[in-house]
Amino acid sequence: MCDTKTDGGGWIIIQRRIMGYVDFYRGWKEYRDGFGDYNIGEFYLGNENIHQLTSKKPHELRIDLEFDNENYFAQYSSFLLLGEEELYKLQIGDYSGNAGDSLAYQKNMSFSTYDRDNDNASGENCAVSYSGAWWYNACHMSNLNGDWGNDAYGKGVNWDGVTGLHDSVVFSEMKLRELD
């Protein structure tokens, strides 16, 4: 799925949440391979697909969010997802936007799911504790694969610079664009 309009277009959408119809609390294999419903527009492209895209040519990342009838974005000058053998480690460049840099805490972190704990939290699996799957550190300042609409601390679809950790966005879209 592509976005041909935002900031000149050319974006490949890798994650979208709009209504909460698709459950994002899933295991490693599903996050590796991708899941969702492209017809209703809620999906995750899959870490292996994202790795294949970003490992061949440099890309930038843009995250669009909606909360309290306001639109926000976070853009990263570079984005690379390492392969499965490196646990889909997140590498991002410089931030710009109006959403706040709530992904910086996740930089260089490996991906974690309820059945694959790769975070830095001692004695805790952040994916289980916060009902999601993400590049958890110990644990997160963003959790865009969290539990839709959940306002319990850290369990929702959070972006700390926009929602804090007690609210959920009502729209989330992550997208990549190849750099020239």
How would you sum up this structure, described in words?
Pfam families: Fibrinogen_C. One of its GO terms (cellular component) is extracellular space. Residues 1-180 form the Fibrinogen C-terminal domain. This is Fibrinogen C-terminal domain-containing protein. Keywords: Disulfide bond. The protein has 180 residues and is of the alpha+beta class. It has a single domain (2-178), classed as Alpha-Beta Complex (Gamma Fibrinogen, Chain A, domain 1), CATH 3.90.215.10. It has 4 helices and 11 strands. It has helices at 28-33, 47-56, 126-129, 160-163, and strands at residues 2-3, 11-17, 35-37, 42-44, 59-67, 70-81, 90-92, 95-97, 142-143, 158-159, 171-178. Strands 1, 2, 3, 4, 5, 6, 7, 8 and 11 form a 9-stranded antiparallel β-sheet that branches. It has a two-stranded antiparallel ribbon with strand order 9-10. The longest helix is centred in the first third of the chain and has 10 residues, at 47-56. The mean pLDDT is 96.
